Amino acid sequence: MSIHVDLDLVALVAAVVGLGVGAQFLAAKYRVPSVLFLIAAGVTVGPEGLGIITTDTFGAALSTIVGVSVAIIVFEGSFRLDFETVSDAPRAVWWLITVGAATTFVGTALTVRFLLGPSWDISLLVAALLVATGPTVITPILAVVPVREAVATTLETEGIVNDVTAAILAIVLFKAMTARELAPRGYVVLFAERLGMGIATGLVIAAVVWVLLTRVDLPAEASPQTARLLTLAAAVVAFAIADSVFSEAGIAAAATAGFVLGNLDLPHRESILQFKRDVTLLVLSFVFIALAALLEFSELVALGVSGLAVVAVLTIVLRPLVVFASTAGGGFSSRERLFLSFVGPRGIIPASVATLFAIRLRTGSPPTDPAGADVLLGTVFLVILVTVVVEAGFAGQIAAALGVTRSDDRE
């Protein structure tokens, strides 16, 4: 019996991977972001479609699979961030990841609280998760929409940094929400612990990998493969070590290790980069399909018109407000500022962390806040679904209409 179950699970994983590769193929052929096909595939095999994947399919292992996958994705994104490019990037980047992120957090919390009516705890939790735009969605968009380098760097840097800080902030808020005994100073301590642990772990792992690749003599025929595997291991090991000490510190560790290694003079850099891209596409496909398969339309429908109003405020009011304020005098044309305003899709980290929180709120002993869990999961998934379908799906058309693609660049 156990052999049969294992074979079924292997077949299921193979099917998900096959669907993911198929989605990437269609995305490349039709030059649209792959996340659209990935979500469609996930919904098709999920409980709202064929029912092949349910919440019990992967069980408790899903959060671990998602965590490791996100570490690989974030590592690859930060590996491609050049220090000189980031340091020379328009000041808009720094405004977006500081004042812009804070404004988005506060604005989202107020919007959710007054339009949907959950507790302040749930409203703040939703807001923390939705601060992150996320490289998991931005990267596929930029792969098919060739915008000016400054625009691409701004979107990528915002996504990676906000992914890290938003995940840590959400964990801190959830811990405070469930513990009910955290002093105001405790929030800062918890945040600093996780961010500091992540950065320190990432630096150490990056240093170890650099020494192994540059100071140890390897046979010429084995050197490229070893370099690729060591950098992949760096992402997973950095994540695992930091996350075992403080939950969600692993994301910061993977991002730090990726950024440091990406800016060192590593041997076989191009080979490493191509390998990481391939692995990232694979895990991105798997995780997006697996999480989309857990989507239940009843949770979205329950939000009603108020849920759609929340999405509208976040995308049509709050995002443009934050972008235009952050990019004032930053060297962007008005059309590029509009494009940045239209491209703010949320990705895997909000979906995965929201799923984890919802499970804990529903299955606690006694359940902490089942109704709040429904609002949390429904709101986060609704924002993800709408922003991915609209903003990612039409990013190419929006860029073309605004004339901000590289071929249309007037500068």
Automatic annotation (TrEMBL):
Gene3D superfamilies (alphabetical): 1.20.1530.20
Domain Cation/H+ exchanger transmembrane: residue ranges: 18-391
Topology of this chain in the membrane: Multi-pass membrane protein
Keywords: Antiport, Cell membrane, Ion transport, Membrane, Transmembrane, Transmembrane helix, Transport
Pfam family, one: Na_H_Exchanger
InterPro entries named in the record: Cation/H_exchanger_TM (IPR006153), Na+/solute_symporter_sf (IPR038770)
Biological-process GO terms, alphabetical: monoatomic ion transport
UniProt superkingdom: Archaea
Compartment annotation: Cell membrane
A molecular-function term among this protein's GO annotations: antiporter activity
GO cellular component: a single term: plasma membrane
Segments crossing the lipid bilayer: 7-28, 34-53, 60-81, 93-116, 123-144, 195-213, 233-266, 278-295, 301-326, 338-359, 379-404
Protein name: Cation:proton antiporter
